[in-house]
Design brief:
The complex is a heterodimer.
Chain A: E1 2-6, H1 7-17, E2 32-38, E3 41-47, E4 51-58, E5 60-63, E6 65-70, H2 71-80, E7 85-90, E8 95-100, E9 103-108, E10 126-130, H3 131-139, E11 156-164, E12 167-175, E13 179-186, H4 193-197, E14 199-202, H5 203-214, E15 219-225, E16 228-233, E17 236-241, E18 260-265, H6 266-277, E19 286-292, E20 295-302, E21 306-313, E22 315-316, E23 321-326, H7 327-336, E24 341-346, E25 353-357, E26 363-367, E27 370-371
Antiparallel strand pairs in A: 1-5, 1-7, 2-3, 2-6, 3-4, 4-17, 7-8, 8-9, 10-15, 11-12, 11-14, 12-13, 13-26, 15-16, 16-17, 18-22, 18-24, 19-20, 19-23, 20-21, 24-25, 25-26
Helix pairs in contact in A: 1-2, 3-5, 6-7
Chain B: H1 2-5, E1 10-15, H2 18-26, E2 35-38, E3 46-49, H3 51-54, H4 64-70, E4 75-77, H5 81-96, E5 102-106, E6 109-113, H6 118-121, H7 124-139, E7 143-148, H8 151-161, E8 166-168, H9 173-177, H10 190-198, H11 204-208, H12 212-219, H13 221-229, E9 247-257, H14 260-281, E10 283-294, E11 299-310, H15 313-325, E12 334-342, E13 345-346, E14 350-351, H16 357-377
Helix pairs in contact in B: 5-7, 12-13, 14-15
Classes of the chains: A alpha+beta, B alpha+beta.
Chain lengths: ~375, ~400
C-alpha cells in the first residue's frame, strides 16, 4: 500500500478517531486505526466495539491496500511533521514507512485482517435531521445522562418517535435518577421501526454524535440495523451499539399537577446559583431556596468556609416555601436554555420540580430536591 | 499550654472476657463453665475465652484445636459480632453518662477522660465504681477499670485490675511501674522484646536506667518512645470517636469453597451483616469492595462505586455477585470472602431520587422492621430463607 496525503487532512482524520479508540488496552488492535487506501482517498476506521467511526479523506493512492497502526502514535507523529505532503508506505510484515520533508519514520503496525468487521450500511433506511437541530437536542439533554456505570440503562440518551399534541415529534430524554431533561423537535420518524419503541444511544456515541453535528451545516442521516444506530454525515459514518436495557418509565416522574408556580428571570437565577454554589458543600452542592411573595432568596453554607445569601425579584404569589436543590443540576439546565424567563412548578419540598422555558413546549426538565 | 499542667484523670475500661461473658449471659447453662468463642471449627483460632477456660491455659489467638486439647470440655461457640456490638453500644451508653470524652479502642475497650466530670460525680475512683456498678446492674457483665493521669498508665492499670476490679496508679507511680515486665509496655511486641532482652533488660526499672541517646541510637523513634514510657510519660489526648471510615465483614471457611452457589450464600450473609451495621451507625457507603482469598492464600479485591450510595443488603448482594464474577473464584478454590463499604456518609440526607424513591422507602421500612424483630427475638428472629441454618452449617459445603 502506498499513498500520499496532505498533512492537514491526515491530521484532522487522525484527531477525529482519538476519542474512539480503546484506551484500556484489553484488545491491542482496538487501539489501532485501520487505514484503507483505494482510488482517490483513504478510509480511516476506529472502533472500541461499542462505537465505531469510518471517514474518507482525499489522497493520491499509488498502490491500494490496508494496514492498522496505533492511532495514538500515528497521531503524535503526524502532528509534529512539517506542513507538507506526507508519503505513507506499507511494506512487508506490517512495517510502515512515513516520509515528510527530511523526516523518515519506520513504525510497526498490525495486519488489517485482525481488525473487527465494520458493518456495511448501504441499504439501510435512513431519516434526515438538520445538524443544528440535532446539536440542540443533544446539548439540552446530554448533561442529564448518568455517569454511574451500574445504571447502564441511564448511561445514554433515550430517543423515541411519537405523536404529541397532534404532531409527529422526535424526542430525546436523559436522566441520572436525580434530574431529567426532555427535548423534542417536530419531525416525522414514525416509519423508523426502532424509534417507535424507543432506543438508548450510549454515552460515548452521544459525544461523537454531538461532535459530528457541530462539524458544519448539512443534514445528518440516522438509521438502525441490528442493535446498532448508524449515523452518516458527508464522508463520515458512525456506528454505535445501542444500550441493551429498558429506559425507565420517565413519564411517571414528570409532575403534571405541581400547583405552586413561579416565573424566574433565567439570567438572574443562573448567576445567583453560580455565586451561591461556591459556598455550598463540595460534595452535595446543595443550595437553599426560599420563596416568598415575589421574592426568591437563595443561600448556601459550608462549615469550612462560611455562608452566602442573595435575593431577587420573581413572580410568586403562593404560600412561603423553602426547598433545597443541587446547584449544579439547576445550573446545567439553565445554562443550556435561552429563554428570558423560566417557569418552575413545585409541589412541596420533597417532590420533583418541573422547569420549562417560558413559551416553549418542546423542552422540560425535572429535578428532585435535596434535603438540607 | 496551661491545660497540660492540670493533672488529668484518665480511665481505661476493659470488659472482662467480653465475647465469652456475653455468651454466658445469653446462655445461663454456660455460667461458671469454660467457654471458647472463635471461628469456624478446627481451622479457627480462639477469639475470646472465659476465665474458666483460661485456668486451663487457653488464651486468645490460640488455634482452637490446641485449646480443646488443653480444655476438652470447653464449649466452643461462633463469634456473634452483631450481638457483641449491640451490648457494646449499651456499655458505651453507660460511659456517656459520665463524660463525652470517650475514645473507643474496640467493642469492649475505651479510654475516658473524666478530668472535668469529677465536680459532678466525685473522684476517679468514684466514677469507676459507678460505671462498674451500672454495667453490672444493667447488663450483668464485669468490667475492669484502670485509673491514671495518662492513657499509657491507665491501660497498664486496667490490666492490673483484672478480673473484675479497679486499679488506680498510686501517687508513687514507680512502685507500680518499675517492676513491670517489658512486654506490658505499649509498642513492645515479640521482636522489640527480643531486642530489649538482648540488651539485658527485663523490667521497666531496667529500661529506666538507659540513656535516651542510647535508646534512640539503638531503636530510633521507638527508643525515644520507650524512654518516655519508662518514666510513665504519655501526652496523647483522649480523642472522642474516630470518624468511621469503612464497615466490612469477612469469613474464612472450614473447607475451601468451589461452587458459586455456596459463595453466593456467604455473600448474602456478609451483605446482611454489613447492612445491619450501616443502619446501626446511620450511614451508607458509596464504594463496595469484595475481597477474595484463594486457597493458596493469594487474595484479590474488586470494587464498584455507586454515586447514590449503597445501604441495602439486597443491592450489596447484587453488586458483590457481579464483582465475584470478575475474580477467579470457582476456577480456584476460595478460602475467604469479605465485603466492605467505604466512603461512608450520613444516610437519608441529601439528594432525593426520581425513580427509586418509593422502592427505597419500602426497602428501608422492611429493614427497620427486620431490625426490630432481631432486637426482640435475637439473630434468629428473622432471616432470609437462603440463610436458614447457614451459620450453623459452619459455612462448609459438601
Amino acid at each position: 500500500m502506498n499513498f500520499s496525503i496532505e498533512k492537514e487532512s491526515f491530521l484532522k482524520g487522525l484527531a477525529r478517531v482519538q476519542s474512539i479508540v480503546e484506551k484500556k488496552n484489553t484488545i491491542p488492535i482496538l487501539a489501532n486505526v485501520l487505514i484503507e487506501a483505494e482510488s482517490d482517498h483513504i478510509l480511516l476506521t476506529a472502533t472500541d466495539l461499542e462505537v465505531g467511526m469510518k471517514s474518507a479523506y482525499p489522497a493520491k493512492v499509488t498502490t491500494p491496500g490496508r494496514i492498522t497502526v496505533s492511532a495514538k502514535k500515528l497521531f503524535e507523529i503526524i502532528k509534529e511533521l512539517p506542513e507538507k505532503e506526507i508519503s505513507f508506505n506499507a511494506k512487508d510484515n506490517c512495517w510502515i514507512e512515513i516520509r515528510c520533508g527530511k523526516s523518515v519514520f519506520n513504525i510497526v503496525g498490525l495486519s488489517a485482517d485482525e481488525f473487527p468487521y465494520f458493518p456495511q450500511i448501504e441499504k439501510e433506511q435512513f431519516f434526515q435531521i438538520q445538524s443544528s437541530i440535532l446539536k440542540r437536542l443533544i446539548e439540552k439533554t446530554a448533561f442529564s445522562m448518568s455517569t454511574d456505570e451500574s445504571k447502564y440503562n441511564l448511561n445514554g440518551i433515550y430517543l423515541r418517535a411519537l405523536e404529541d399534541k397532534g404532531h409527529q415529534v422526535l424526542r430525546f430524554v436523559a436522566t441520572d435518577g436525580h434530574r431529567l431533561a426532555l427535548m423534542q423537535t417536530p419531525l416525522d420518524c414514525s416509519h423508523v421501526e426502532p424509534l417507535i419503541k424507543g432506543v438508548i444511544f450510549p454515552r460515548k456515541g452521544v459525544v461523537e454524535l454531538r461532535k459530528i453535528s457541530d462539524e458544519g451545516d448539512g443534514d445528518i442521516s440516522l438509521g438502525f440495523m441490528d442493535n446498532n444506530a448508524v449515523v452518516k454525515k458527508g464522508q463520515t459514518i458512525i456506528v454505535m451499539r445501542l444500550v441493551d436495557g429498558e429506559f425507565p418509565d420517565y413519564n411517571r416522574v414528570i409532575p403534571a399537577n405541581n400547583a405552586i408556580k413561579t416565573a424566574i428571570p433565567r439570567e438572574d437565577f443562573l448567576h445567583a446559583l453560580r455565586r451561591m454554589a461556591i459556598l455550598s458543600s463540595e460534595k452535595s452542592k446543595g443550595v437553599k431556596i426560599d420563596f416568598q411573595e415575589n421574592l426568591l432568596t437563595m443561600s448556601s453554607s459550608n462549615p469550612e468556609f462560611g455562608d452566602a445569601r442573595e435575593d431577587f425579584e420573581i413572580e410568586y404569589l403562593e404560600d412561603e416555601l423553602s426547598i433545597g436543590f443541587n446547584a449544579r443540576y439547576l445550573i446545567d439546565i439553565l445554562s443550556t436554555l435561552d429563554s428570558e424567563k423560566i417557569d418552575l412548578a413545585l409541589r412541596d419540598q420533597l417532590s420533583p420540580g418541573l422547569i420549562t422555558p417560558t413559551g416553549d413546549d418542546d423542552y422540560l426538565a425535572v429535578i428532585m430536591p435535596m434535603r438540607l | 499550654m496551661g491545660e497540660n499542667l492540670v493533672v488529668k484523670t484518665i480511665l481505661h475500661l476493659d470488659m472482662d472476657a467480653f465475647y465469652a461473658s456475653v455468651e454466658q449471659l445469653d446462655r445461663a447453662e454456660l455460667q461458671g463453665r469454660p467457654v471458647i468463642v472463635g471461628g469456624h471449627g478446627m481451622r479457627g483460632v480462639v477469639c475470646a475465652c472465659s476465665y474458666e477456660a483460661r485456668t486451663f491455659g487457653v488464651h486468645s489467638a490460640m488455634p482452637i484445636a490446641r485449646a480443646l486439647r488443653l480444655c476438652p470440655h470447653a464449649t466452643v461457640l461462633p463469634v456473634r459480632m452483631a450481638r457483641y456490638q449491640e451490648i457494646s453500644g449499651q456499655v458505651f451508653e453507660i460511659f456517656e453518662r459520665y463524660t463525652d470524652l470517650i475514645e473507643p479502642i474496640s467493642v469492649d475497650e475505651a479510654f475516658l477522660d473524666v478530668t472535668d466530670s469529677k465536680r459532678l460525680f466525685g473522684c476517679g475512683w468514684d466514677i469507676a465504681t459507678k460505671i462498674r456498678r451500672d454495667v453490672r446492674d444493667e447488663l450483668g457483665l464485669a468490667i475492669s477499670v484502670g485509673i491514671a493521669p495518662n492513657k499509657f498508665l491507665a491501660k497498664l492499670a486496667s490490666e492490673q485490675a483484672k478480673p473484675d476490679g479497679i486499679f488506680q496508679v498510686p501517687e508513687a507511680m514507680d512502685d507500680f511501674l518499675l517492676p513491670l515486665p517489658l512486654k506490658r509496655l505499649w509498642g513492645v511486641g515479640p521482636v522489640m522484646l527480643q531486642e530489649l532482652e538482648a540488651l539485658g533488660l527485663r523490667t521497666v526499672g531496667d529500661l529506666r536506667t538507659m540513656d535516651r541517646s542510647f535508646l534512640e541510637g539503638r531503636l530510633g523513634k521507638a527508643g525515644a518512645m520507650l524512654f518516655r514510657l519508662a518514666r510513665g510519660e504519655d501526652t496523647r489526648q483522649v480523642t472522642p470517636e474516630r470518624e468511621l471510615k469503612s464497615i466490612g465483614h469477612e469469613d474464612t471457611f472450614d473447607k475451601d469453597l468451589w461452587q458459586s452457589e455456596s459463595m453466593h450464600v456467604v455473600l448474602l450473609d456478609l451483605a446482611e451483616r454489613v447492612a445491619t451495621r450501616l443502619r446501626r451507625h446511620g450511614v451508607m457507603g458509596t464504594t463496595l469492595t469484595l475481597k477474595v482469598k484463594y486457597a493458596d492464600f493469594s487474595s484479590v479485591t474488586r470494587s464498584r462505586t455507586v454515586v447514590d450510595g449503597i445501604a441495602n443488603a439486597g443491592d450489596m448482594f447484587v453488586l458483590a455477585k457481579e464483582l465475584l464474577d470478575k475474580t477467579e473464584a470457582g476456577r480456584k478454590p476460595v478460602r475467604l470472602l469479605g465485603i466492605s463499604l467505604n466512603n461512608l456518609q450520613e444516610a437519608g440526607s441529601g439528594q432525593g431520587l426520581l425513580f427509586d424513591g418509593q422502592r427505597q422507602r419500602q426497602l428501608n421500612d422492611l429493614d427497620r422492621a427486620m431490625d426490630r424483630l432481631r432486637e426482640r427475638y435475637g439473630e434468629k428472629g428473622i432471616c432470609r430463607a437462603t440463610l436458614v441454618g447457614h451459620r450453623q452449617r459452619g459455612l462448609s459445603e459438601d
